[in-house]
Amino acid sequence: MNFPDNLKYTKDHEWVLVEGDIATIGITEFAQGELGDIVFVDIPSEGESLAEAEVFGTVEAVKTVSDLYMPVSGTVTEINAALEDSPELINSEPYSEGWMVKITISDASQLDSLMSPSDYADMVS
Fold first, then answer.
1. Fewer CB within 10 Å: N-end or C-end of the chain?
2. What is the pLDDT of residues 10-30, one digit of tens each?
3. Which CATH number fits the domain that encloses residue 69?
4. pTM, two decimal places
């Protein structure tokens, strides 16, 4: 299983790529594997402000629907429009083309509570 070193992780299986005050968020390879074939994604629209731990959308797989939890507070600046027509990108490219939202981080101190790749790997193994 792959847990890129440049990402931070949540106990709810989201990953976060931090670039300045922008965070790109998706779900981990482990999470998509547990869900199975993803058929639909419901994510917020641009401009929406969300609090840390708030549900920011859902991922629907063939057999289940799973909530997505915001790793840090922020305002959505971009959504991955490709997921509308190709939600399976989350299965095939969870850390690249399968990203879900980009946000402007409103409280950078919340990043300190996220997990390192090794801590996340320990949690799921």
1. C
2. 999 999 999 999 999 999 999
3. 2.40.50.100
4. 0.97
